[in-house]
Amino acid sequence: MFAMASLDTVKVAETTRVTPSSDSPKSATEFSLPLTFFDTFCLKFHPVERIFFYQLNDSTPEYFNSVILPKLKHSLSLTLLHFLPLAGNLRWPSNSPKPIIMYTPNDGVSVTVAESNSNFSLVSGNEIHEALELHSLVPQLMVTDDVAPIIALQITLFPSHGFCIGITAHHTVLDGKSSTMFIKSWAYLCKQGNIENSSLPQELTPFYDRSVIKDTSRLDLLYLNQWIAFTSLGLDPNRRSLMIIQNTRDVPDDLVRATFDLTREDIKKLREKVLSELDKAKPLHLSSFVVTLAYVSTCLIKARDGESERAVCWGFAADCRSRLDPPIPENYFGNCIIGPFAEAKARKFMDGNGFPFAAALVSDMFKELEKEILGEAEKQVTKILNLIKETGKQMICVSGSPRFGVYEVDFGWGKPRKVEIISIDRGGAISLAESRDGSRGIEIGLALQKHEMEIFTSFFLDGLRDL
Question: How far apart are CA 314 and CA 328, in angstroms?
């Protein structure tokens, strides 16, 4: 059933700036980081927008303003001492060949405080609901040619129901793992009681040494120049701009969102189905991620109206930290992802062999990563630009990861009721997270047109019943 919700239900109370705690000398010291080729690879990507919903039935405006909000702001100030780059900006000085991440004293993070009268159960639930309803719960990054904030936050109260925290993160500076590390660190310090000079656990302490990223081929400048040439349309190849490709928040009015779950048992049965139908002599990489992506993709392709000869393109972000030679620390701060792609005709997925075919295709993508993580790295941006230029292809990309552990983010009021990635609304992406109940299942978020979502739902549920 499609649940309707009224729009324009958010009232902004204030927009303020939270700076790193002035009680520490760290906040008075400039801090900068250069961009690596992993960062310039993401230069023009749309910011990632996420919302963490927390159910708290006694969250009256009085309690929110006197307890919740002060605790969140103070712990944010303490957390920024460990994450100074996030309080700063992405800048492109006239004497620098590429942008830099720069924190200067008194820089801070924009925090919007708001109140919503939306149906909390609806917007933080799994059932089909309007996508636009969630867009007023995440802030915008006010990007110019020369300066771009790195993150922006919004804390929204749903009186007597709970609150949510929306975060918008500039992809040039943060991949999903680094963004989640920041949120977990903020939650950790908040839950610990906001003790001054608190340290973070090793796994949450950001590692900033950029020398661990080797770039003898100067991929950083290659990617940068490719983005500049594309966005300037060849008119001004020297034009410096931090503006993203699609700096827009327009989302179709009929777009809806829904969340689906694959249990551990579902994934086991799907894996067995693949193994029973494919050549057993060929080794397959059938992780929960591969099986989930293959199954959801097959349902999406079947649900999409269109020519069976149309091309379908897959892409996902693979974390390179443990795959580099030598590996780099898991708490490395910044981007460290590479984007493998694959393509096939839609008709390959339409019959009963579609799911096993998809599983073999995604498995092959992972096996290519195991051979050489940075193979043909110089072509990475070119591949993305070619996809942007082409029309008629069905794109299926992945945002998030079941490995991030987003349902562990507890600020002291319990784990999230729901975590949503709002930026998938801009087309072609699905979101993945671990199951909230800790059962090792996978949660899938989708944003589709209403009729397409209904068809997808039918394929998804019928396929599981037939296992």
Answer: 27
The band of 258, judged by pLDDT with boundaries at 50, 70 and 90, is very high
- Cα distance between residue 444 and residue 401, in whole Å: 10
Residues 221-238, mean pLDDT to the nearest whole number: 81
CA dihedral 434, 279, 282, 348 (to 10 degrees): -60
Residue type, 235: L
What distance in Å separates the CA atoms of residue 35 and residue 165, rounded to the nearest whole number?
28
Confidence category of residue 235, pLDDT binned at 50, 70, 90: low
279 is catalytic: no
The C-alpha atoms of residue 206 and residue 83 are separated, in whole angstroms, by 7
Arithmetic mean of pLDDT over the chain: 91
Residue that has been written with the tokens 């800048």 in this structure: 91
The set of residues, in sequence order, having a beta carbon less than 8 Å from that of 402 and lying 6+ positions away, is 288, 289, 432, 433, 434, 442, 443
Residue 325 appears among annotated catalytic residues: no
Under a CB-based contact definition with an 8 Å cutoff, are residues 316 and 339 in contact?
A: yes
HSE of 275 in the Cβ direction (CA atoms, 13 Å)? 11
- For residue 232, what are the contacts with CB-CB under 8 A and spacing of at least 6? 239, 241
- pLDDT number for residue 143: 93
Q: Torsions phi, psi of 173, nearest 5?
A: -105, -30
Residue 410 in tokens = 């507890």
* Sequence-separated (6 or more) residues with CB below 8 Å from residue 406: 50, 52, 180, 183, 400, 416, 419, 433, 434
Catalytic residue among 171, 220, 266, 425: 171
Provide DSSP, 435-466.
Answer: -TTSSS-EEEEEEEEHHHHHHHHHHHHHHHHT
Under 8 Å CB-to-CB from 150, ≥6 apart: which residues? 85, 86, 88, 89, 90, 101, 169, 170, 173, 174
Cα gap 323→127, rounded to integer Å: 37
| Residue 397: strand pairing partners | 315, 429
Q: What is the pTM of this model?
A: 0.95
Tokens linked to 10: 């958010």
Active-site entry in 146, 254, 261, 410: 410
Q: Residue for token digits 């999230």?
A: 416
